[in-house]
Amino acid sequence: MSSTKIHTESLKTELSEMLGKAYSPYSGVKVAAAVEYEVNGEKKVAYGVNVENVSYGLTVCAERSAISAAIAQGMTSISALHVMSNQEQAISPCGACRQVVTEFMGQVDGPVMCVNQAGTEVWESTLGQLLPNRFDL
Amino acid sequence: MSSTKIHTESLKTELSEMLGKAYSPYSGVKVAAAVEYEVNGEKKVAYGVNVENVSYGLTVCAERSAISAAIAQGMTSISALHVMSNQEQAISPCGACRQVVTEFMGQVDGPVMCVNQAGTEVWESTLGQLLPNRFDL
Amino acid sequence: MSSTKIHTESLKTELSEMLGKAYSPYSGVKVAAAVEYEVNGEKKVAYGVNVENVSYGLTVCAERSAISAAIAQGMTSISALHVMSNQEQAISPCGACRQVVTEFMGQVDGPVMCVNQAGTEVWESTLGQLLPNRFDL
Amino acid sequence: MSSTKIHTESLKTELSEMLGKAYSPYSGVKVAAAVEYEVNGEKKVAYGVNVENVSYGLTVCAERSAISAAIAQGMTSISALHVMSNQEQAISPCGACRQVVTEFMGQVDGPVMCVNQAGTEVWESTLGQLLPNRFDL
C-alpha cells in the first residue's frame, strides 16, 4: 500500500542526518544504517549508527546497531538493509555485519544497498552474494 | 521537574515487557536494559535487549544495544543504567558492557541498577565500583 | 622444498587432536583451525581453537584464535586456512572470521579448506568467494 | 622448582620483544600480554599481542590473544596475567579482557601486573579488584 511504502529518498535524507550522531572519535568514519522490516503487514524502519570504543574490539557497526534497535522494536525478519557513510566510496558491510544480517534475513536475495553521503556512489547487492555458504549449525 | 521525572516503577514495567523481545535462542537468557540520559535538560530513556548470534562472538548484550539506541537518538552522556533479566538472581553487566558504559558515563558514581524480572532481587552499584582503574588511553 | 612442505594429512591429525582443547561449554561445538603462512621462505603453521565465554559476545572463534597465534609468531600474510569441527557437516568460517582473514590474506584466491572430524565431509573455497566486495577503507 | 620458576625479568624482556609483533595500524597502540598457567605442576607461559582490524569491532586485545594461545596449548586455569604496552603509562586490561580472564581465573586474588615498555611505570592489581561482582550465570 502506498501509505506504508518506504520512500527511498526520505530514507536517504534520514540516514544523512543520522551520520551526525555516529560516535567515531577514533576512526573519523561515520556510518548510518537502516533496517527495513514488516510487523503485521506494516512496513517499519529502524536506524543505527556506528559506536566506537577506546577498546577498539568493543566497537559496534551501524548495521548491527540498527539490527539491535529493530529487535527491540519487535522485528523478527529483515526485508532490506541500507548503509550510508561519510566516505567517498559506498562502503559495504563488514563480515561481522553480514553474519548478523543473515541471522534475521531468510531470503538469500534480500537487498543490501550502500551509498555515500553525497548520493553519487551507489552499490547494491544481496545477502546471498555478500555471504555465500554462510556459517550455520 | 516532576514532569520529566523518570518513574522507576514504569521503567521496570517497560523492561519487563521488553524481555519478551530479547533474541536469545542459544542461551535462553533474556535481558533488557534501559539507559537514562539528558538532552537539553530533558530526561530520556533508550532501551535494548540482548541479540544473540549463531556465531556466539557476534552476540550483543542488552546494555550495549541500549547504548547504541541512545546514541542514535542523540545521547552524549549516560545518567543511569538499568538491567533486568529473566534469571532468578539480578545479573550484573559483563566486563565488555562496563567498558562501553564508561565510554559515555563521566561520573564514577553513576548508578547501575540490576533487578530480576520478579523484582524481588535488586542489586545496585556504581560504574566506579564495577570497573575501577578503567582502561583508557 | 619437500622438507618444509606441509603435509595435509599430518595437519588433519593435528587439528583432530586440537579439537579436544576447544573451550566450548556453552555450545558444545568444538572447532580447530590452522593458519599456514611463510616467513623468510619457510612454511609455518599456527593453530587455534574456539574459546567461548559466559558473556557470549566475548567468544573467539578458532579461526581468529589461530590468526592471533600466527601474528604473535611473526606472521604477516596468510597462505591458507584450514578449519575442522566436531559437527557432522564441514562448517565454513563465520562472517567475522572471513573479515579477519581478509586483513591478512592478500590474494582473493587464497584457499579456505573445511572438513569434519571424521574427514568424510570436505568443503573448499577461496577468500574471494567467501567475502566478495569486502569492507575496506 | 627453580627450574620451572618464571623469572619476571625474562618475561619482561620477552614481552618487550613481542611488542614489535603487535598488529595495530589503526591505533598505533602496541600491547603484549603473557598468561602464566600450570599443567601437571609445570609452569608455562603463553603470549599474545593485539590484533586490530579495519572493522574496529573485530579487534582482539593482547590479553585475549594470549588466553586463546594458552587454551590451544592446554591451559585450564590462569595463575597470573602480565600486560605491557608502548604507552607512557602502564595500561590496565579493558573490561572485555577482564571478563575473559575471569572465565579462567578461579581465585579473586589472581594477580594482574601491568607495566610500560620502559619498565618505569608498574601497576599491580587482582582480578577481584578489576572485575568485582562479575557477570556470571
Automatic annotation (TrEMBL), chains A, B, C, D:
<dbReference type="GO" id="GO:0055086">
    <property type="term" value="P:nucleobase-containing small molecule metabolic process"/>
</dbReference>
<dbReference type="GO" id="GO:0005829">
    <property type="term" value="C:cytosol"/>
</dbReference>
<feature type="binding site">
    <location>
        <begin position="50"/>
        <end position="56"/>
    </location>
    <ligand>
        <name>substrate</name>
    </ligand>
</feature>
<dbReference type="InterPro" id="IPR016193">
    <property type="entry name" value="Cytidine_deaminase-like"/>
</dbReference>
<dbReference type="GO" id="GO:0008270">
    <property type="term" value="F:zinc ion binding"/>
</dbReference>
<dbReference type="GO" id="GO:0004126">
    <property type="term" value="F:cytidine deaminase activity"/>
</dbReference>
<dbReference type="InterPro" id="IPR002125">
    <property type="entry name" value="CMP_dCMP_dom"/>
</dbReference>
<keyword id="KW-0862">Zinc</keyword>
<comment type="similarity">
    <text>Belongs to the cytidine and deoxycytidylate deaminase family.</text>
</comment>
<feature type="domain" description="CMP/dCMP-type deaminase">
    <location>
        <begin position="6"/>
        <end position="137"/>
    </location>
</feature>
<feature type="binding site">
    <location>
        <position position="61"/>
    </location>
    <ligand>
        <name>Zn(2+)</name>
    </ligand>
</feature>
<dbReference type="Pfam" id="PF00383">
    <property type="entry name" value="dCMP_cyt_deam_1"/>
</dbReference>
<dbReference type="InterPro" id="IPR006262">
    <property type="entry name" value="Cyt_deam_tetra"/>
</dbReference>
<feature type="binding site">
    <location>
        <position position="97"/>
    </location>
    <ligand>
        <name>Zn(2+)</name>
    </ligand>
</feature>
<dbReference type="GO" id="GO:0042802">
    <property type="term" value="F:identical protein binding"/>
</dbReference>
<dbReference type="InterPro" id="IPR016192">
    <property type="entry name" value="APOBEC/CMP_deaminase_Zn-bd"/>
</dbReference>
<dbReference type="GO" id="GO:0072527">
    <property type="term" value="P:pyrimidine-containing compound metabolic process"/>
</dbReference>
<dbReference type="InterPro" id="IPR050202">
    <property type="entry name" value="Cyt/Deoxycyt_deaminase"/>
</dbReference>
<comment type="function">
    <text>This enzyme scavenges exogenous and endogenous cytidine and 2'-deoxycytidine for UMP synthesis.</text>
</comment>
<feature type="binding site">
    <location>
        <position position="94"/>
    </location>
    <ligand>
        <name>Zn(2+)</name>
    </ligand>
</feature>
<keyword id="KW-0378">Hydrolase</keyword>
<keyword id="KW-0479">Metal-binding</keyword>
<protein>
    <recommendedName>
        <fullName>Cytidine deaminase</fullName>
        <ecNumber>3.5.4.5</ecNumber>
    </recommendedName>
</protein>
<feature type="active site" description="Proton donor">
    <location>
        <position position="63"/>
    </location>
</feature>
